[in-house]
Specification:
Layout: H1 4-14, H2 29-57, H3 67-89, H4 95-122, H5 131-154, H6 159-177, H7 181-194, H8 202-212, H9 218-225, H10 232-252, H11 257-277, H12 289-300, H13 306-339, H14 356-376
Length: about 400
């Protein structure tokens, strides 16, 4: 806990900056770093809360004040404060970054009460793909996109710029992938049910069954754990999730970017897996396919022609992602057979291999658009857009 003297010193440092200004205002370097490290703290809290949230909802009946919600809300409070600071002072952002951050924060804050109303009216929200939940993801999407742009445009060249940009893309990847955790938890819950083990508390199962008008049986469990078509998981993963890796590689411009961003997120999911399961919460399948696909994205960028790498890259990434998903799925049976569902780590949602063509076409379209946009800016390999000079002096 900070002492009153340290708080006073921090206030004396910050107060001179609290002046109204337009976005794009020349920003002192020390203030710029404080603002964006504040965003790292906000997204870290939201990441920890969201990682706990899905597992919590597969075990307990929903509660507005559940610990994961409070942890996520702490990150949101910091994000709102930073949005106000950027908007009032104009420091640390250009106009485009500020608009993205403001719209994202606004959408998120509107979605919160709508989600609460949705739960009051409809009871248990069976899927993470509901409209109010999608609004939460969309708000966070624009928010992080604005932060990425702000850091990308304003951070001075160097290792810190690259590392922090990669961290922001890892947070971006987590947010885009978040709704798919429903299937990652759901498939293991079905496997556990088939092995006479249940993760959810009886009150949650009874509530879900009453809402569906069914007894607590496998049909009810499937409706609760896997309420969306099988093709949604792989198609969304390839088109939306892996597009984040393509854009990260384009903007950061270094070999290994896509692999490291994917590995950072997958590594986090792997680390929290035992923390959740050893404390009695349900396990999830871990999306190891992202690391394989990220490596293929990096390899595709060894091709010099953007159009060629978009075509071959989309084909290669789609094949790699589906191959990894199938490999994980084939491990599900032996793992659950041996471990009775309690410690199944390598499961994966059904890969729906017939959807691979559509996933590949979707990724190709997004990849081609990304290449075209960056190409129009005549991007350089490492720093596609020259960052503006940041003032070193205090006001």
């Amino acid at each position: 806990m900070k002492s009153p003297a340290s708080i006073k010193k921090a206030a004396e440092w910050a107060l001179p900056y609290w002046t109204r200004g337009q976005a794009g205002r020349e920003t002192p370097q020390d203030l710029f770093r404080v603002l964006y490290f504040g965003w790292l703290a906000a997204f870290t809290l939201k990441l920890l809360g969201s990682a706990w949230d899905v597992s919590w909802h597969f075990k307990w009946l929903r509660d507005d004040l559940a610990p994961p919600h409070l942890l996520n809300s702490a990150g949101t409070v910091i994000a709102v404060a930073l949005t106000v600071i950027h908007g009032y002072t104009g420091y640390g952002v250009d106009k485009a970054a500020l608009r993205l951050i403001q719209w994202g924060t606004g959408i998120f804050l509107v979605a919160v009460p709508l989600d609460l109303i949705n739960h009051r009216v409809n009871g248990l929200d069976i899927t993470s793909w509901s409209p109010s939940h999608i609004m939460l993801y969309a708000g966070t999407f624009f928010m992080i996109a604005g932060v990425i742009r702000g850091w990308f445009m304003g951070a001075p060249p160097g290792r810190e710029r690259v590392v922090v940009l990669g961290a922001f893309f890892a947070f971006f990847l987590e947010n885009v992938h978040f709704p798919e955790q429903h299937q990652e938890y759901g498939i293991l819950s079905i496997g556990a049910w088939d092995n006479q083990a249940t993760y959810a508390e009886p009150i949650l199962l009874r509530f879900a069954a009453d809402q569906m008008g069914r007894p607590v049986d496998r049909t009810m469990m499937t409706g609760f754990a896997l309420p969306v078509p099988d093709f949604l998981y792989p198609v969304y993963a390839v088109v939306a999730v892996l597009s984040v890796l393509v854009v990260a590689r384009l903007l950061i411009g270094r070999f290994g970017t896509a692999t490291l961003v994917a590995a950072s997120y997958v590594g986090f999911r792997t680390l929290i897996w035992p923390l959740l399961t050893f404390t009695g919460f349900p396990p999830s399948a871990v999306p190891f396919f992202m690391v394989v696909a990220g490596l293929v994205v990096d390899l595709a960028f060894l091709l010099r022609l953007p159009a060629l790498r978009a075509v071959l890259g989309a084909v290669g990434v789609t094949a790699a992602a589906y191959g990894a998903l199938i490999a994980q799925s084939t491990l599900m049976g032996p793992v659950y057979g041996a471990l009775k569902g309690q410690e199944g780590l390598f499961g994966a949602p059904p890969p729906a291999t017939s959807s691979a063509v559509w996933a590949g076409v979707g990724l190709l379209a997004v990849w081609a658009v990304a290449e075209w946009v960056v190409g129009r800016r005549k991007a350089r390999p490492v720093d596609p857009i020259e960052p503006p000079v940041i003032a070193a002096a205090t006001p």
